[in-house]
Structures are given as structure tokens and as C-alpha cells.
Write a structure and sequence with these properties.
By secondary structure, this protein is α/β, with parallel strands linked by helices. It is built from 14 helices and seven strands. It folds into two domains: 125 residues, no CATH class; 163 residues, no CATH class.
């Protein structure tokens, strides 16, 4: 996740202004600054990422910290990060904390009493609820890193399909290596059913806006799947490692596509789909699920 800010420094300002309502001064460019905040005596303080917004001169330093769990030590080191950056770049400094779960976000948002009268540090925290939902392919192409955060925060819910489709379109706007890195990262963080659905979008032909990146990713996955014989993967070739895993993933994808479109299959429909072991039949049901008006239309 830190690479999102290192690859697109503007992401720090976008989250602060658009998602968290923090007043961000006007700036012409955002550049990555060294995160080494070590001072003498030699105690090392290393921020995850530091972004400096400037308009000729620095106007705001953003210290970005990715926090996945509670760490009481941060309540002592975070103020040091800000004071060090403020002294180094001679401009205001702000702490931006990124959290992937709501519980950790709530803990990080608690103010830190500095002891000095009137001085309390209340970190702006971008938890799952604060991250914007990106479903517009054009927006995803303009800010692919924001689309990645959107997919990580919201891609496991019932409204996942348009979020994941926008992400895949957005990945086509960056170089292939970065796109593959981002796709792998999203797939790694998604719940299993959503992950399999994203794989199906990329590989099974139901993703009507299938981008050049998705096609290359699938081809890369096929090559790796043949070479490694892996059971799981990020595209069609990787899924082909084991027949059982492939069948299970496609069956779950049928159910997820239906539910994502607001169609809730009955117990009988679910049981029939999940019990199917015919890969060809599951592929056909996946295609029908994309346009079905009722769950029973799968079997027409």
C-alpha cells in the first residue's frame, strides 16, 4: 500500500481533501521526500512515506503511515515524525494514517495529548469508510492508485462488480509491471469469493470492457500456470492448476455475479450451482448470470 503513495504522490492530497475534508493548500506539484526522520541522539524514526506539496516553495508535508493493527509505540513516534518534517522542510506538516479495517482506524483516530496546553494531535485517518468508491472508468484511469484503494476498501461487498471493473480499466493506464503489482495486491486483500470473481472478470469473458492489461495478465497467468501447475492464481491460466479449485471458483463466481446484480438465488439454485462439476456448464452459467433477470434464468 505504501507504493501507492510512492508511485503517485498526489494521492496523499486527494485523500486528505476529498475523503477526510482537510483543507489542503494550493500546490503545483507533489514530490516524494525522504522518509528517514532520524535525529541525534541516534534513534531511528522511519516513516512509511513522506509527500511534500509545493508551490514554488513547500506548502505542506504529509507523513503517510499505513497501520494494520494497534501499536502503542506509534503514539510516541508520530509526533516526532511531524516535528522533524516541519523543521526540515520549513512548512506545516500533517499526519495521514491509512487503515484497512474500521477497528484499527478508530484506535488511530484517538487524539494524542502532547502535554503542552492546547496541543493535542488528532491524526486524520483514512479507514475503509473514508476511502471514496471509484466506479467510473475515467476516474480510475486518471487516478489508478485511488482505484486500488477503493477496491481494497470496498471490493469485498455486494457492490463489488462495478468497483472491480473500474479498477481493471484504470490499470490499463499504467505500465504493465505496476499494473500487475496492483492487481496482485488487490487480489491478495480481497475475500475469497470476491477474489475469484475478479479472476473471472479478467479471464472468463464476462468482463465486457476487458482491457489490454487484463488480456496480458491472463496470458501471463496461463504461462505461469503451465510452468508451475499451481492450484490458484490471478487469472484463468493460474486457476487451471487443479480442477477442483477451478470448479469451486467458477461456481462461487456464478453466485457472486447474481448477488452483485441484486438477484438473490434460492437455496435450490445455490445447491445446484455449487454441486456442479462441469467446467463448461459453469462457464455457460457465468455468461448467463451477467444478463439474467432471475436466478432461474441460468437453467433456461
Amino acid at each position: 500500500m505504501i507504493l501507492l503513495f510512492r508511485n503517485r504522490s498526489e494521492l496523499a492530497a486527494e485523500l486528505l481533501g476529498k475523503a477526510l475534508g482537510v483543507a489542503v493548500p494550493a500546490y503545483e506539484k507533489a514530490v516524494l521526500a525522504p522518509g528517514d526522520l532520524t535525529e541525534c541522539p541516534p534513534v531511528e524514526y522511519q516513516a512509511d512515506a513522506v509527500v511534500v506539496l509545493s508551490d514554488g516553495d513547500p506548502v505542506l508535508a504529509v507523513v503517510v503511515e499505513v497501520q494494520r493493527h494497534r501499536d502503542p509505540r506509534k503514539r510516541w513516534s508520530w509526533p516526532v515524525y511531524l516535528a522533524s518534517m516541519r523543521a526540515r522542510v520549513k512548512c506545516p506538516a500533517i499526519l495521514l494514517v491509512i487503515c484497512t479495517d474500521a477497528t484499527t482506524a478508530a484506535w488511530c483516530a484517538k487524539s494524542i495529548d502532547m502535554g503542552h496546553p492546547g496541543w493535542r494531535l488528532a491524526p486524520p485517518v483514512a479507514g475503509p469508510e473514508a476511502v471514496p468508491v471509484v466506479v467510473d472508468p475515467g476516474e480510475a484511469a486518471r487516478a489508478p492508485e485511488l482505484a486500488v484503494l477503493s477496491a481494497v476498501a470496498h471490493g469485498g461487498g455486494l457492490d463489488a462488480p462495478p468497483i472491480l471493473e473500474a479498477l481493471l480499466d484504470g490499470l490499463a493506464s499504467v505500465d504493465e509491471d505496476r499494473a500487475r503489482l496492483y492487481a496482485d495486491f488487490v487480489l491478495m486483500t480481497l475475500p475469497e469469493v470476491a477474489r475469484k470473481h475478479m479472476e473471472v472478470l479478467m479471464a472468463a469473458g464476462t468482463y465486457e470492457y476487458q482491457s489490454d492489461f487484463a488480456k496480458k495478465y491472463v496470458a501471463h497467468g496461463k504461462a505461469e500456470g503451465k510452468a508451475e501447475g499451481r492450484a490458484e492464481g490471478k487469472a484463468e491460466g493460474r486457476i487451471e492448476g487443479k480442477a477442483e479449485g477451478k470448479v469451486e471458483g467458477k461456481a462461487e463466481a456464478v453466485i457472486l455475479i447474481l448477488s452483485g446484480r441484486g438477484i438473490w438465488p434460492s437455496v435450490e439454485v445455490r445447491d445446484r450451482v455449487l454441486a456442479c462439476t462441469d467446467v463448461w456448464q459453469l462457464d455457460e452459467w457465468i455468461k448467463r448470470a451477467a444478463n439474467a433477470e432471475e436466478a432461474e434464468d441460468l437453467f433456461v
